[in-house]
Prior knowledge:
By secondary structure, chain A is mostly helical. Chain A is 71% helix and 6% strand. Chain A is built from 24 helices and five strands.
Amino acid sequence: MIMFTSLFYLGIFLSLLGFVLPLLRLENNRKAHRTFSYSLSILSSVSFLAFSALVFLKKGEYLIPVYSNAGLIDFTFYVDQLSAFFIAVISVVSLSSAVYSFGYGEHLSHERRKDYMASLLNLFALSMVLVVASYNTLEFIFFWELLSMSSFLFVLFEYGKPGTRKAGLYYFIMTQLSTMFLLLGFFGIYANTGSFNIQPVTSLQNLTLIFLSLFIGFSIKAGVVPFHKWLPYAHPAAPSNISAMMSGVMLKVAIYGLMRFTLTVLPQERWWGVLILVAGTVSAILGVIYALKEHDIKRLLAYHSIENIGIILIGFGLYLIYSANDLNELAILALAAALFHTLNHALFKSLLFLTAGSVVSATGKHNIEEYGGLIKTMPYTAALFLIGAVSISGLPPFNGFVSELMLFQAFLGSYLIQDPLLKSLVVLCLSGFALTSALAAACFVKAFGITFLAVPRSESARDAKEVGKCMIAGAVIPAVLCIVLGVFSLQIFSLMGYRTDLPDMLVIGIIMSLFYAITYLVLKNTAANKVRAGETWGCGTPLSSRTEYTASGFSQPIVRFFKDIYQTREVNERRFYDKQNTLFKEGAGEIHLMKFFEEKLYDPVARSINYLSIKVSALENWSLDTYVLYAFLAVLATVAYVGWIA
Amino acid sequence: MNPAQVLCIAINAGLILGISPFFMGLVKKTKALCQGRRGPPLMQPYYNLAKLLKKERVYSGNSSVIMKATPYINMAAITAAALFIPVACITTPAYGLGNIILFLYLLALAKFFMALAGLDAGSTFGGMSSSREMSISSIIEPITIVVFAALVYTLHTVNFYDMFSQTTIMQPFFQPELLFISIPLFIVLIVETARVPVDNPETHLELTMVHEGMLLEYSGRDLAFMEFSNSIKQTLFMAVLINTILPWGLSAELTAPAILFSAAAFLVKGAFLAVLMGLFESAQAKVRLFALPSLFALAFFFSILTVCLEVFS
């Protein structure tokens, strides 16, 4: 008992030390301090990981007091299996991100920035762990804000670059909006119970209101459509090691919050599951559809985060639906799928962001249309990215497939539901989910194919060099876990005491490698082994990078199929020599994709707030008389109001 | 799993692997006869494979390890998927063999790598084909899943072996749900095997090509594998359709006569379906790529209809 809570204290202490050390600006040998700070981050991740593994296996609940002054400020932490699981997820990603930073952090331009990177990385990781371990809502908000602020600094890290300020502004407003909704929900709970503690509440007034405000608050932070707009701005703006953590685990902190408050705090109602399922399906479909048209590699990955958060919500929504209908086995399967996908997404998304960061730092470009052929110059990065791509596309035998398989199984069990309308809804969501996973595969064929295969499309892609050992090692950790968690999934589940009749991926993996080996060996001995190097067939014309298929070309059929969602507008101008329009003279064609949510939701809201503030500021004329008049009118109004009421 | 079960699965897979090129040849022959040609002999696909195995391989200088590994990955994934469908005998396998989702995703794995290989050589044909292939497969995917969901809703299991052991003992043609399912299942079969009206397996013309374009840079034994795995895939989807609507003859007994009888029955039914596919292809014209969603909407309608029948009955 003492042993393992001390691991938690140790983790906090190491992180804080790692946070403070680079800020002290000790003049001699700052690089050594940064290296030390990253090492501290790794050590604290390891101790948090060990701690959460112990809690998870012992299935206990632990209260860990840190500081308390008679009620007002109470830093007591609470860890049970759910929070231990999320702490483990956070720690694994922080660990690999810190290893990656040994190399990546030193690429930054200023000495001062390198220091801040090392320091803030520790604070960022620590604040996520502490949000998840919070015992009362005040603590939760405190660390939530700490998390928002540290990540906000990271979004603005490269403030000189174009677009970064817009990203920062978006992120800041959205994250504060999320905090506001959370506060509303928390005070709603406090008004009912008189306690800030996060513990089960049996009866509540305004339950619907409290649930909705918490749901919106967490949805904004998790990037659920239509609150997702900050993600595709903030993730590309942040440094890649941080995008990996933001996308891999910061979004999961919001998922944790949603799960914590719906599962253990609030008394559940039947319609919540339906709301969450539908929100998840919409996010998943729109996330991947927007990802397909995106050619900035990090923004593409950011849209996939929206999709995967949607998938996690689908699992959670199914859990709520099934448990409301007393289908316990299916409910547990759905919840296990949601949690497993949380872990899997953290792994493959951080893997993809880290390797994408390697590609960006090797080429200096963000646009995949300017990559190409990188598999030859950056073979390790390519192999790691491919593992991530196969995992996120949900292909066997990797981890992404196992959680999607669990979700499909949970969906297909819906024939046991009694209510026919609910059944139909679940089947519709199932088809949406299937569409999502197929489109994700298409998107990653594009992302991997255009980035790594064929001929380099620019000078910088041709001259790219493989990144250093640390940056590869940082990505190797999640890559190995992606494979292990996929192939040994059933064994891991039974180790945790969860028995299911899911397919054994170990057997499937062995069968597949056996067939691979048999095919290879049989051919080696029987078929002709002659190999000749030739040229790509180009109908006799010389091929170059200009004749290759582009990313825009690749996604064009899908963009066209879903043109109603993209609101594509095609403008064709043609001019002719004659009046009968037969001899073509010149023309121009443009395709515009509408930013639907930005143009139809965000901008109008922003405009109306702007309009309102202009109107309000017009009342202000810097003259004392006017202000006295306002005060007088206010008093008059108050008196009149009180007079009428009384 | 006991040796009898392993043997049963091996017999199923062996039969599928052995018979696949024949069905390919039969479809080709039917189409040729419809067009007034004599057509290649029925065994031509086997001769082709044998010939290709003896040929040298040519790799483009632009291509990478993806191009070289894809034929093996394809073969491994699709042969593994062949363990999932009973054609000669039914057993109750362990380890999730026969799981419908795993079956679909093994085929998706093959498709993923095939599309990457299409992009690998840097040719416009390959890129265009993999783009089209992935687009078509993404919009057919929800339909495939709903068809399979309809099967699950009707038969209450997610395992092909359990499903088809139920359909074999059902009254023939007295399951309207299964008849409805067969329509979208047939469309899925046409789409997945890249046939007219979705794709044209005969041409290498850029206007029509989808599947063939991805194989354009392949030669020698690699090409043999890509074509062989494609024919296995066709047999797998044919077997799903056959076992859903015409399951008779498929036996659960593990005796030599019973297995021989089921295998023969599958051959006859498969040949019938292959001729039907050839006739269907001959009667259709290739549909424009962007007109495909309406064809798919038809399939989606029938599969949703089946689910609704089940839900509201």
